[in-house]
Automatic annotation (TrEMBL):
GO terms for molecular function: 5-amino-6-(5-phosphoribosylamino)uracil reductase activity. Pathway: Cofactor biosynthesis; riboflavin biosynthesis. GO terms for biological process: riboflavin biosynthetic process. Gene3D superfamilies: Dihydrofolate Reductase, subunit A. Residues 4-222 form the Bacterial bifunctional deaminase-reductase C-terminal domain. This is Pyrimidine reductase, riboflavin biosynthesis. It comes from the Bacteria. Pfam families: RibD_C. Keywords: NADP, Oxidoreductase.
Length: 240
């Protein structure tokens, strides 16, 4: 299969949570900087061309649950994918199967990283939503009718946009569904020396939403490094 090399890069608390007040502690802040610098700093480890996020992660961080402004009477758009910008230096790729995200621009900024927005849709996204993306100059691909066709989506990211290395960047639902689908080669996790004990926050991997089963997966440790603020950076190969 012609797809990018996919690594899952995440920050967690000691108890494996990817959100929560532990992030505001000095130890959490230090781990956050470690996490960012590994993937997006001036000398990044993976040198990826895009990072993939679930719809909830995108709403929480970038589109803030705004509703897209849709024209239900817009003429039918051309069928198939829309490549607004091939070979961008960095893509923010959002898995948004039904077309819910209320974008206002085709670029976003995360830290000092600027990225072109690219949506992964399925056949559930409406014509009006696709027209909305085209108007904003946001690229999209269609992969699957009712559910995500992982292999097709990943192949399109490589062949249409030149993404050779892709970061799988959360949340837990997205991460686990990709691992279960065999679409993740490596796990890179920065564990902050902090926790908050909340029962309400998502973990690194989640079966919630019914997109994947809880079939156990083993990992092979590639490296372990102590980093700032008592954090540790663990890298694993995912056992097939
Ligand atoms: N600590 C970190 O490093 C880190 C990194 C990233 C995110 N986060 C946090 O994680 C939290 C969100 O995580 P989450 O697990 O609740 O949600 P998520 O994985 O971000 O998003 C889940 C949603 O994305 C879509 N989706 C994901 N996988 C899919 C698949 N295989 N097929 C079809 N659709 C799929 C679905 O959208 P629809 O509901 O539209 O169908 C699904 O409900 C946020 O609070 C975020 O800030 C933390």
């Amino acid at each position: 299969m012609d797809r990018p090399y996919i690594f899952c890069h995440m920050m967690t608390s000691v108890d494996g949570k990817i959100m929560g007040s532990y992030m505001e502690t000095p130890e959490g802040n230090a781990a956050g900087d470690v996490f960012y610098n590994i993937a997006f700093g001036s000398n990044p480890h993976y040198k990826h061309q895009g990072w993939l996020s679930g719809r909830v992660t995108t709403d929480d961080n970038f589109t803030l649950y705004r509703k897209p402004v849709l024209d239900e009477n817009v003429p039918l758009v051309r069928s198939g994918d829309f490549v607004a910008l091939p070979n961008a230096p960095m893509y923010y790729v959002s898995v948004d199967p039904s077309g819910k995200l209320g974008w206002e621009s085709n670029t976003l900024t995360y830290g000092d990283t600027t990225a072109h927005v690219l949506e992964v849709l399925t056949g559930k996204a409406s014509n009006a939503y696709k027209a909305f993306l085209r108007k904003l100059g946001i690229s999209y691909i269609i992969a699957g009718e009712d559910s995500l066709d992982y292999a097709l989506a990943m192949e399109k990211l490589k062949t249409l946009f030149g993404i050779e290395t892709l970061m799988l960047g959360g949340g837990g639902v997205l991460n686990w569904s990709f691992i279960q689908a065999g679409m993740c080669d490596e796990l890179s996790v920065v564990i902050a020396a902090a926790a908050d004990g909340s029962s309400e926050t998502p973990a690194l991997f989640e079966t919630r939403g019914g997109m994947a089963t809880n079939k156990a997966v083993g990992f092979t440790l590639k490296s372990a490094e102590v980093k700032d603020g008592g954090s540790v950076w663990l890298r694993y190969r995912i056992n097939k």
